Amino acid sequence: MNQERIRNFCIIAHIDHGKSTLTDRLLEVTGTVSMRDMVEQVMDQMDLEREKGITIKAKAVRMLYRAKMVSSTK
Q: What per-residue confidence (pLDDT) applies to 72?
């Protein structure tokens, strides 16, 4: 993997502001998790996390994404 193209980021927000939903969409859009394996709150693995809607432990994920080429029109 080309090290120059790696970008690290973190999602931080208050409780009930959509961190898990955003994470699910990013994993879906990048194809990191197939639609067959996709479930709500895919990153939350503990029963308590799913039941209470909280994330207890942070997790790292590698997503491969290729940006669409945008053609410029004059």
A: 67
